[in-house]
Write a structure and sequence with these properties.
The complex is a heterodimer.
Chain A lengths: L1 H43 L19 H9 L3 H29 L3 H18 L6
Chain B lengths: L2 H22 L4 H11 L4 H26 L4 H21 L5 H20 L13 H5 L4 E5 L2 E5 L4 H18 L4 H11 L4 H26 L4 H22 L5 H23 L4
Antiparallel strand pairs in B: 1-2
Helix pairs in contact in B: 1-2, 1-10, 2-3, 3-9, 3-10, 4-7, 4-9, 5-11, 7-8, 8-9
Classes of the chains: A mainly alpha, B mainly alpha.
Organism (chain A): Pedobacter nutrimenti
InterPro entries (chain A): DUF1634
Keywords (chain A): Membrane, Transmembrane, Transmembrane helix
């Protein structure tokens, strides 16, 4: 029982750190989205909106590479999209952290499960799923 | 409509969606998608893309708060994520091959289901019978602190929960929502995990699952900066305020009122979906 209690507190510490890390990720990515948003409204605020029909070809920043290219030219929508990308990566870091904590605990079955989950997500990043 | 006006309307709507979503435990996505599609005429595929981003923001943002009140069972989360990540990606891939009208109908049905789950009284089915063979093999049984020690709990029907989570993942990927109601069904009712553990664990999974399908949406061009920006910011601020109020207020009445609104939205989505207006 004593040992289990100790174990639990170690877990809790890791989770507090992780929770804080996630919050930092959210605040950081949201700040970037906000900054991009202000520039976007400044430039295009008076233009018309047209989102009536979904057209995949209209999307300018639909890959990680394209977003980074757009960032170089400081395009406002690319900045927003970069913030969104950071946000998407925030929970993925949580998986990576969990894998490490399982590794420290020497729970190799869960190291494998964690790596599998990570691979599934990375596979979706490979851009092969969208025709 | 100008970009500025559109942004302001969506920002306010998303703020309210996040606020009510967190007060009722429904989540912001299920409200923002009807708002975008029914009220503003946005294509449902764009609405889905924006909503999934807001799911990631709220789930990650509230993780720190959740750690204080409950205890995540990372093993349960990681184990079930095998099901939810695969199925979420699958859902996100097939969503464009389905007639938008049908998606609206499925969305309406999930809304109806969520409304029922919201007003239903939650019963904690957990016990400490830790004899399930799969639960032992995958080390899912755990304990959490109560006054004067640790309370143990056993996880039941692992296969049933896994299958339900697979379904929850497909719905999440297909509709761009966290599908919290389905996850509650899987964890509280089927696997009989105690509330203290299931809420935080479900929150842990929601962000990871949403991230998996968000990547697919991004590649397909469904995440548009002009919509994602006000939706995410609005929902996040609304949800943050909601979680602060939540501690001080009783939400029983609010839930009933809100369930009626959700049923109305659900019928609208189903009607518009069937009549081909979406």
């Amino acid at each position: 029982m004593k040992e289990q209690g100790k174990h639990f507190f170690a877990d809790k510490d890791v989770q507090v750190i992780l929770g804080t890390l996630l919050r930092v990720g959210v605040v950081l990515s949201m700040s970037i989205v906000l900054i991009g948003g202000f520039i976007y409204l400044w430039h295009y605020g008076n233009g018309p909106v047209n989102y009536r029909v979904f057209d995949p070809l209209k999307a300018e920043y639909s890959s990680v590479l394209a977003i980074f290219r757009g960032l170089k030219s400081l395009d406002s929508t690319a900045i927003i999209q970069f913030g969104v990308l950071l946000l998407i990566f925030t929970p993925i870091t949580r998986v990576v952290f969990s894998i490490f904590s399982f590794l420290i605990e020497k729970d190799y079955m869960y190291v494998l499960i964690g790596i599998f989950v990570l691979c599934v997500i990375l596979f979706s990043l490979s851009n092969k799923l969208v025709g | 409509m100008s970009v500025l006006l559109f942004t302001v309307i969506v920002l306010v709507g998303a703020f309210l969606a996040g606020l009510v979503g967190s007060l009722t435990g429904l989540g912001g996505g299920v409200i923002i998608i009807p708002l975008l599609t029914l009220a503003l005429g946005v294509d449902i595929h764009y609405a889905i893309g924006a909503s999934i981003v807001s799911v990631i923001a709220t789930s990650s943002g509230s993780a720190a708060a959740y750690v204080k009140e409950g205890i995540t069972n990372i093993r349960i989360g990681m184990f079930l994520e095998i099901a939810t990540t695969i199925s979420a990606i699958f859902g996100a891939v097939i969503t464009v091959y389905i007639n938008p009208g049908y998606i609206a109908v499925i969305f309406g049905l999930i809304l109806l289901f969520s409304a029922v789950m919201m007003v239903r009284k939650k019963v904690d089915h957990s016990d400490d019978d830790a004899s399930g063979r799969l639960a032992v093999f995958f080390k899912l049984n755990g304990s959490y602190p109560v006054e004067g020690g640790l309370k143990k709990y056993g996880v039941h029907n692992v296969i049933g929960g896994f299958v339900m989570m697979f379904f929850a993942g497909i719905i999440s990927g297909l509709l761009g929502i966290g599908s919290g109601a389905l996850k509650v069904l899987a964890m509280d009712n089927i696997m009989r995990i105690p509330f203290k553990v299931s809420t935080t664990t479900s929150n842990f999974m929601m962000g990871v699952t949403a991230a998996a399908s968000a990547v697919v949406y991004l590649h397909r061009g469904q995440i548009v900066p002009g919509i994602a920006m006000p939706v995410t910011i609005g929902v996040l601020f609304g949800a943050t305020l909601g979680s602060k109020i939540l501690v001080k207020t009783k939400t029983d009445k609010l839930k009933v009122i809100f369930a009626a609104v959700v049923v109305f939205l659900a019928l609208q989505m189903i009607y518009n979906g069937l009549s081909g207006k979406l």
